[in-house]
Fold this sequence. Notes:
Blueprint: E1 2-5, E2 8-11, H1 16-25, H2 27-30, H3 56-68, H4 72-77, H5 79-98, H6 105-122, H7 133-149, H8 153-156, H9 168-191, H10 206-215, H11 223-239
Antiparallel strand pairs: 1-2
Helix pairs in contact: 5-6, 6-11, 7-9, 9-11
Amino acid sequence: MTLKLGRITTIVISSPDIAKEALQKNEQALSSRPILDAIRANNHHKNSMVWLPASTHWKFLRKVCAKQMFTPQKLNASQALRQEKVEEMLEYVQENCNNGHVVDIGRTAFITVLNLISNTFFSFNIANYNSNFSQEFSDLVVGVMEQVGKPNIADYFPILRLVDPQGVRRKMNIYSKRTAQIFENIVNDRTQGRSSLVASKANHDVLDALLILAKENHTEFSYNDIQALLLRALTLLQAR
């Protein structure tokens, strides 16, 4: 079945034989995703594993994620950290209850998960229960998800990308630049004052592993790739 969505032609495959033809015999040509106009903000589509076409660099980034972020060993190693963060959350809730203060459970859970992830990646808490940063980061995550999920007429009529009639890309540029600034500050703080590759192995966290990989001359891994991977991992886990 063929659907004409604006200027974009969409083919719906409902036959097992045609699905096999598309996914097995022509997967290289048909495996890429259409790039939404919102994703083009800050050139995110050029560094994100989600939007890159199937290529050597895409395979390399996928391998990095599999080995450095989501291995069973790393998840098992963070069990004690997860328990520690849950205990901190319970102590915060108990303290507020004892003082007769109202607790925002959604915000408290968000900060707990955010700090669990940030400790796994960066070895420190990125927010605390009494700061406004967690709310700012939450607003950034929600803003990105809303703009990406919003129907955008520029995706169906590409000529309208020049004027961005709904302002989707403009808003995404704001969110993207702010999150990039946060990660850039974290990376700069980690790399500042480190004069040797051996010294950067001290924390044994995800960021150290990615920085070491980026310093290896024989890889195509860059600091832009690091930011894109961290952003994707954090927003995905926070959304879940």
